[in-house]
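Running low. Any example?
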Amino acid sequence: RLLAVDQGADDRGSRPVGNVPDMLFEVRKGAWYGWPDFIGDIAITDPRYEPQRGETPSFLIANHDELPQPEKPLLRFPPHTAAVKFAVGPSGDLFVALFGDEVPMTAPSGPKVGRSVVRVDTGDWSMHPFVQDGLLRPIDVQFSAADGALYVLDFGGFEMIANGGVSAEPETGKVWRITT
């Protein structure tokens, strides 16, 4: 199986879209994943995707009826969690690094989200907390066959600031070794 994460659209730019979840898909030959007019299998015109920074997006493609039905994601992560890398654990479950929001660049101000590692049960494609505390910006995860541990690469302190810049804290990145 080929699995991929999609970080989804943001509430910014020339076609802002609000509250878009990150998604996990199984990539299959001949499938259509909805872009640019669907968020997974839900139309971009659905009220849940109403942006705060612009007008409601409209369809860009005129011939949806000639395309396959958009694929439904295996899992929808919460909006702006920035699902980045994932590793397959010994049991077959996925462990996903959630880098976290980039507010105020990607969306209007709101609570901090992501900044954790979650476990995805591949039996029912449900998401479960795994490492919720202590991480600043997890960006990669990897299982070690040598010791059975999950290694998490934490980018460190990194925040977007109101003027469009970035505030990054030197020497705050870490590599975490997690055993279960």
